[in-house]
Design brief:
The protein is mostly beta strands and 211 residues long. Helices cover 12% and strands 36% of the residues. The chain contains four helices and 15 strands. Strands 4, 5, 8, 9, 11, 12, 13 and 14 form an eight-stranded mixed sheet that branches. The protein has a three-stranded antiparallel sheet with strand order 7-10-15, with no helix packed on it. Strands 1-6 form a two-stranded antiparallel ribbon. The longest helix is centred in the middle third of the chain and has 10 residues.
Length: 211
């Protein structure tokens, strides 16, 4: 959820904070089987997830909330573990086994040839947090719909794109928030992922969860 912070709105789990930035010492290195890949100058095993380099961030939630920015690590955790973007707890409804999800025009894209499915960069929202989110988040006042979904799976990333420079230097191409599919290895090798996108399946309208 993004926008100017309403005074009564608690800070959602997924929102970035000002002091959570981390250095991004990037370079291109040659892979064992040939070809160049974006990496860090001090690589860690946890840097590459789903075949793409993930941007490093801190995870201590210190500093002023950055209402227009998501913390990469917490957004990723929410997507992979189906956690609520507001409270950070499990979002799946234990009574139904389905996952409540708020979609918006900016964070959701239909898949024309797959009925009741779509791609989203916004994590799920648990049933308990949906009414508060809809009433307090300015962006959700513009366009939103409440669904339940059967399952989700990683499908793509939003990424900053880089190209190799002299001496292995990583040169930013000027491209931000580029959608790169996890099935596009040539692009993934040049991408620094900032958000994980999942495909959600079997969307069913759930207006009754709005409050």
């Amino acid at each position: 959820m993004t926008g100017n912070a309403p005074p009564q709105l608690r800070i959602p789990y997924v929102i970035a904070h000002a002091d959570e930035g981390a250095p991004q010492p990037l370079r291109f290195a040659r892979r064992p089987l040939g070809g160049l890949r974006l990496t860090y100058r001090n690589p860690r095993r946890s840097d590459v997830i789903h075949g793409v380099l993930r941007a490093r961030v801190m995870n201590h939630r210190r500093g002023a909330p950055q209402w227009r920015k998501l913390n990469t690590l917490r957004q990723w955790l929410c997507m992979e573990r189906t956690l609520c973007q507001v409270c950070g707890l499990e979002a799946t409804d234990p009574a139904t086994g389905r996952i409540p999800w708020i979609t918006t025009a900016t964070a959701f894209r239909d898949i024309p040839d797959v009925p009741n499915s779509g791609y989203t960069s916004a994590p799920a929202t648990c049933r308990a947090c949906i009414p508060e989110s809809l009433s307090m988040c300015p962006q959700l006042h513009v366009s939103s719909a409440v669904y339940t979904v059967a399952r989700s799976e990683p499908a793509a990333v939003l990424a900053d794109m880089f190209t190799p420079g002299a001496g292995g230097l990583a040169v930013h191409t000027g491209e931000h928030n580029v959608l790169v599919g996890l099935n596009e290895p040539a692009l993934l090798r040049r991408a620094l992922a900032t958000q994980l996108i999942v495909q959600i399946h079997d969307l069913q309208p759930a207006p009754h969860l709005a409050g």
